[in-house]
Amino acid sequence: MTDLTALTLAEARDALKAKDFTAVELTEAYIAAVEAARSLNAFIVETPDIARDMAKASDEKLAKGQGGALEGIPLGIKDLFATKGVHTQACSHILDGFKPPYESTVTANLWADGAVMLGKLNMDEFAMGSSNETSYYGPVTNPWRRKGSNANLVPGGSSGGSAAAVAARLCLGATATDTGGSIRQPAAFTGTAGIKPTYGRCSRWGVVAFASSLDQAGPIARDMRDTAILLKSMASVDPKDTTSVDLPVPDYESAIGKSVKGLKIGIPREYRLDGMPAEIDALWQKGIDILRDAGAEIVDISLPHTKYALPAYYIVAPAEASSNLARYDGVRYGLRENGSDIIDLYENSRAKGFGAEVKRRILIGTYVLSAGYYDAYYLRAQKVRTLIKRDFELAYAAGVDAILTPATPSAAFGIGEKADADPVEMYLNDVFTVTVNMAGLPGLSVPAGLSAEGLPLGLQLIGRPFGEETLFSVGSAIEQAVGKFSPDKWW
Ligand code: GLN
């Protein structure tokens, strides 16, 4: 039999339906792949017994010609998603031992469609980071290496485990979340595809909160089609999340390969940064040429408030985080450090339980929300956010269907290379992606080429609210032109 882990999700789905192999066989192949790749540190918890039970149940359905859209498909789950009875710690020490008595809506949707859980994936602590180096469980190693080098690189973050696991073929797809770029940046760093849907497309219920007005769940997968298939299953309106939106979930897969002829693609001049590496610029130009050749109309646009997005994000996101993370007090769940009185217990638990980056965010957030600084920082950042959103609205009102930008300002960097430097160095990774969260829009990352060093690079497509189908069509046009990229196996 050919290596089952070489198939895409769509191929595996069709082969399962055709009974070419069983869900148990497919699952066993993935369990073995996960075990053989422990050196990457992508999975922090493996759940082979659960996977086998789910696969058996899938086989029974498939044998009767039944089963959901993901029947028998093995997936990895970011540790930010609550999974009933299974380790859920947002890769933080403060949630030590937490096994939620409930399931997140997104993962419940996946299981209802027949997917199989392989385990929980590594991530930056509470999804704060761009390199997966803030995880309590240690960094994830990118399956990609520079040509002729065996230096270990980061997979990006915060969904670094998700991206690395998909790139290394340890699962057919993974759940991820994106508050400022955490789906799109790791996808770009690993040659995988990812989409942050419109705010409200997926329920946030049961997803550990970072910055609630920015957080969205979405998939990371091997290609555009697999990403589209997963998003359809993940998305839903949910009475348990009042910010989820009651719109029918389209069949995203049917948007794959649809002509982009006549679509208007905006190229925002503000994304051409000073000092941007020449190969990022060249990649962007390549994307423009591909879409023009495919019949799209390329138009220059201006999003004038772009330069304020990163500073405003680093006020809004920490502000919301400081309030969301106030619940971790050492009393209700997770780690408890004793103290001489209750305040002492809170302080000791939080001091021990949170890592340095999370503490930095809490301090920033508490500061910008404090009585004396609220107007100067938080309120102003919210106003800037409105202006950023309006920039996009004006572009779309002028007829733009989607916006093309680079996904990241560089390829993957070395483990330790940026983590110890000025934190702003790390924050700059998200310069092209945070605008999209600030505006609540959908953003897709599609692999578009390799750097001179042989590392994957991604392009970003930004859509209108609920314009995911257009993004899948345009993304698949790029994918068709450039092909797909996988790392050579060394682990
Ligand atoms: N890197 C950004 C941050 O650290 C975004 C993270 C995310 O999208 N979760 O806040």
Short description:
With 491 residues, the protein is α/β, with parallel strands linked by helices.
Describe the structure.
The chain is an alpha/beta fold and 491 residues long. The protein is 37% helix and 13% strand. The chain contains 15 helices and 11 strands. The chain has helices spanning 9-17, 23-36, 48-63, 105-112, 160-167, 184-190, 224-234, 278-293, 309-324, 342-353, 356-369, 374-397, 423-427, 434-439, 468-482; strands spanning 43-46, 74-78, 116-121, 173-178, 193-196, 216-221, 264-268, 297-301, 402-406, 443-450, 456-463. It has an 8-stranded mixed β-sheet with strand order 4-6-5-10-11-9-7-8, sandwiched between helices. Strands 1-3-2 form a 3-stranded mixed β-sheet, sandwiched between helices. A hairpin with a 5-residue loop joins strand 10 (443-450) and strand 11. Helix 5 runs parallel beside helix 6. The longest helix is centred in the C-terminal third of the chain and has 24 residues, at 374-397. The protein is globular and about 65 Å long. The model has no long low-confidence stretch (mean pLDDT 97). Bound molecules: glutamine (GLN). Glutamine binds next to loops.
List the helices and strands and how they pair.
Elements (H helix, E strand, L loop, with lengths): L8 H9 L5 H14 L6 E4 L1 H16 L10 E5 L26 H8 L3 E6 L38 H8 L5 E6 L5 H7 L2 E4 L19 E6 L2 H11 L29 E5 L9 H16 L3 E5 L7 H16 L17 H12 L2 H14 L4 H24 L4 E5 L16 H5 L6 H6 L3 E8 L5 E8 L4 H15 L9
Parallel strand pairs: 2-3, 7-8, 7-9
Antiparallel strand pairs: 1-3, 4-6, 5-6, 5-10, 9-11, 10-11
The site of glutamine has 13 residues, from loops.
